[in-house]
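Meet today's protein:

…
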Amino acid sequence: MAEESRSAVDVYLSAGSNVAPEKNLSLACRELAHRFGPLRLSGVYRNPPVGFAGDDFLNLVVHFRTTAPPSVIVAELERLHTLAGRVRGLERFAPRALDLDLLLYGAAVLAEPGIRVPREDILDYGFVLGPLAELAPHLRHPVTGDTIAQLWALFDKTSCPLQRVSDLAV
């Protein structure tokens, strides 16, 4: 289906960094806005790294509407990882100049090579679910059917302490 004939869908991305995070998150949001149009951003949250010792991460969730298919969005995320200097092949739990993930693509449930939505991180990590709940509390998770606010209310917040630090200046 051609991009022009698709209906626009709501897209939610997670964005995180613990290497020059303000610079890299601002870069990502500027580039995403240039490619996909106006963005809505959650606040920025600081949290300790998960799975390794290192500098704290700054995380947020990004929303935009687009007619682009998921494959185009994921390709753009990979381009931005490269632009920020992220090197693939490093261990899974390691410092990140930029970590962008497609969380939700409308109400789609997809499991294709390189694309899994909804992303499991929504249910697993407070640094994803918390900012998503701030941005879209009434949105329903495509698999569980619960609202994001309900999921956040039930989440064990002691497992991933978050500190809201700011809004991102893009």
